[in-house]
Amino acid sequence: MKFKKNIALSKYTTFQIGGPTDYFIEVKNIDEVLEAVKWAKENKQNILPLGGGSNIVISDQGFRGLVIKLGLDRLEIRGETATAGAGVVVSYLINQTLDRDLVGLEFMAGIPGTVGGAIRGNAGTYGQSMADVLTEVRFLDEKYELRSMKPSEALFQYRHSIFKEKKYLILEADLEFKKGDIDAARKLVDERLKYRQDTQPHQPSAGCIFKNLNLTDVDVTKLQAKGIDTTQFEKFQKIPAGYLIDHLGLKGKTIGGAQISEKHANYIVNTGQATADDVITLISFIKQQIRDEYGVQLQEEVQLII
Ligand SMILES: Cc1cc2nc3c(=O)[nH]c(=O)nc-3n(C[C@H](O)[C@H](O)[C@H](O)COP(=O)(O)OP(=O)(O)OC[C@H]3O[C@@H](n4cnc5c(N)ncnc54)[C@H](O)[C@@H]3O)c2cc1C
Question: Does the residue 26 lie in any domain?
């Protein structure tokens, strides 16, 4: 295998942030993953799987070990089931299934990244997530043994899965679609893309920095005392982290090249020269302000590799 050395990871993240990795390889099939993993094991190197790099902040010092960029792009659609490699780009999967009159993944429209990254973080929106469309996931466990799992065993919750918890490496998955109203599905995709275009920043980012809060985990009297009408959160039972950040007037707050987006308060954007240090410092600042003001602890949705 030809491992590249000293590769700048900023080229592989949507934030355009990240120092060099010692070793880097892009794998195209499962055999190559197994070979890369074997090499890392024999050479006592840490492994960082990388998909689209759209949910990650990598240290300015980079990563000590082997980054495996998952280019597993096999996509097979039979009947109403798609088998997608971990590296299949989600938007491509949506288009390919719609082209075959299959609906089911429209809720993911506009979410960047790959199938593997999306399963690991149980990505989603509008109350739907990857767990809803999966029927089987094949992965390498902590001993790098090949296993497969049904979604019912995968501990899926809001932005959480067993793959994230145990650092399993996702190889491919089966997803279930259904025949449906394609015109309506395409219209929905277009609407969602437009909505994102209008409401999300266009500068480099890693999407939402913080998870939204469960309404039941929060002492709402503290929020009400600060003039927040908490009944607006009852429908989805979630308090958007961005709402609280905005309510505190933090939009536009800048540290170095990292800025809380003026458009969406749960986004930090790279205004040009942001470092991971800038982003981490801004994250800490936000968490402290929110804790002091509302007595709640924000948790990162984004993966910090620091
Ligand atoms: C503009 C923008 C909007 C976004 N909107 C949303 C949204 O609405 N909803 C939402 O949920 N997310 C959103 N995100 C976040 C992100 O797009 C998703 O979390 C996405 O699913 C991440 O996939 P990825 O391939 O880019 O993962 P990466 O960023 O490459 O990786 C994320 C984590 O998963 C690990 N990983 C990647 N691939 C694998 C694999 N095959 N096996 C095991 N581990 C793996 C990585 O090591 C890393 O820890 C948004 C991001 C951006 C930039």
Answer: yes
CB within 6 Å of ligand 1 — which residues?
A: 14, 48-56, 70, 86, 111-114, 116-118, 120-121, 123-125, 163, 169-170, 200, 205-207, 303
Classify burial at 79, counting beta carbons within 10 Å of its beta carbon; exposed 0-12, middle 13-18, buried 19 or more.
exposed
For ligand 1, what atom is nearest to the CA of residue 90? Answer: 21
CATH of the domain at 166: 3.30.465.10
pLDDT value at residue 152: 97
1-30: average pLDDT: 97
Structural domain of residue 257, as residue ranges? 201-305
Residues across the chain: 306
For residue range 218-269, list pLDDT tens digits in order: 999 999 999 999 999 999 899 999 999 999 999 999 999 999 999 999 999 9
Cα 301 to middle of ligand 1, angstroms:
10
Dist CA 21 CA 7 (whole Å): 5
CA of 69 to the centre of ligand 1 (A): 13
Residues 82 and 142 in one domain: yes
Task: Give a yes or no: residue 215 inside a domain.
Answer: yes
CATH number at residue 287: 3.90.78.10
> Could you tell me which residues are beta bridge partners of residue 134?
175
Whether ipTM exceeds 0.90: yes
The DSSP 8-state label assigned to residue 107 in this structure reads: G
